[in-house]
Amino acid sequence: MNVSVLGAGAFGTALAVSLAGNGPVTLWARSRDQADAMQQARENTGRLPGVSLPEALKVTDDFQMATQNRTLLLAVPMQKLRSFLNDHSDALQGRALVACCKGIELQTGLGPIAVMSDVLPDARTALLTGPSFADDIARGLPTALTLACAGTGLGESLQHDLTTANLRLYRTTDTIGAELGGALKNVMAIACGTVMGAGLGDSARAALMTRGYAEMQRFALACGAQPETLAGLSGFGDLTLTCTSDLSRNYRLGLSLGRSEAFDPSVTVEGAATAYAVVARAEEMAIDMPISRCVTGLLDGALTPDAAMAQLLARPLKEE
Ligand SMILES: NC(=O)C1=CN([C@@H]2O[C@H](COP(=O)(O)OP(=O)(O)OC[C@H]3O[C@@H](n4cnc5c(N)ncnc54)[C@H](O)[C@@H]3O)[C@@H](O)[C@H]2O)C=CC1
Ligand SMILES: O=C(CO)COP(=O)(O)O
């Protein structure tokens, strides 16, 4: 099996480390300095410190070389996916591409698979998503993920190729459900982090996770997703992980909002742009997304955590 991971951030590096247990893997970094530094130090000191790169993993900035392999994983942030595809469209046209990002594109309201198909109509596309911290994967801890692919043949072959000693992949053809579960759980993680940062309590977080899940389902089902997908690893599974662990950057952004502390803008936090994308699309579709709306209010600075919670508590009473 020959796999390349394009994007040498935390997640791309972690996936490459795990996949290197199956055979040779190429990890593409966009800057020569970063590729050289990683090749020499055998470590991604910036994004994944403390993890040694196995011998079977080669880091390069040579895109042509990296894209010779059969399976290509794209580990760049959601809001950068389109420009990445446009920059490299000649090399990626017609290839099997597995997006590893979580989110909804701000300008279009599209998820990763839809963006790939939009830019590269001939590409064969899939999505790898689900509950997994880069650090856990890279350290060989057990992880279960969802491989979403509309085509059963390609899905089965990717599921086989990308399963490793510590990555167990489940497969679905419901690409919309997998895209939206992974995107929306990050918005809920910001909400949950905010509640915890503001000292509003574990009970409030449990309420937000549960009503957040209802909100995720409402939106995803209206977009054509299957309810079982939302209940699986890419939805409920990832919601649980991200809303309860301070290893999550989305949750940590929420903690900072709750504590009125500054947050490092260089950290990749997918839920922020996605919250705006979801609220805009929900308004067009007349879907009620009160928690997502509160998250955009918190991010804008228009709402304090207490005001957001008061707004949610004051909503008309309804059936569960
Ligand atoms: N870190 C984690 O634990 C997990 C991350 N993910 C997802 O993986 C995606 C990437 O996240 P991370 O790797 O953690 O972020 P990161 O911030 O560590 O790395 C992002 C990488 O993308 C590269 N990049 C940015 N713009 C680019 C462009 N236009 N062209 C080429 N490369 C570009 C950066 O140089 C960097 O290497 C996100 O969607 C995230 O939700 C999913 C599961 C776990
Ligand atoms: O997606 C993730 C876990 O499944 C990583 O979460 P963060 O992007 O919030 O760090």
List the helices and strands and how they pair.
Elements: E1 3-6, H1 10-19, E2 25-28, H2 32-41, E3 57-60, H3 63-66, E4 71-74, H4 81-87, H5 89-92, E5 96-99, H6 112-119, E6 124-129, H7 134-138, E7 143-148, H8 152-162, E8 167-172, H9 175-197, H10 202-222, H11 227-230, H12 233-244, H13 249-259, H14 270-284, H15 290-300, H16 305-313
Parallel strand pairs: 1-2, 1-4, 2-3, 4-5, 5-6, 7-8
Antiparallel strand pairs: 6-7
The structure holds 1,4-dihydronicotinamide adenine dinucleotide and 1,3-dihydroxyacetonephosphate.
Please summarize what this structure is.
The protein has 320 residues and is of the alpha/beta class. It contains 16 helices and 8 strands.
Task: Report the strand count.
Answer: 8
Largest sheet: 8 strands, mixed
Coarse shape? globular
What small ligands are held by the chains?
1,4-dihydronicotinamide adenine dinucleotide, 1,3-dihydroxyacetonephosphate
Query: Structural class, from secondary structure content?
Result: alpha/beta
H-E string: EHEHEHEHHEHEHEHEHHHHHHHH
Order of the strands making up the biggest sheet = 3-2-1-4-5-6-7-8
Averaged pLDDT, please?
A: 97
Could you tell me the strand content as a percent range?
Answer: 5-15%
Summarize the amount of helix as a percent range. 40-55%
> How far apart lie the N and C ends?
48 Å
- So how many helices? 16
Radius of gyration: 19 Å
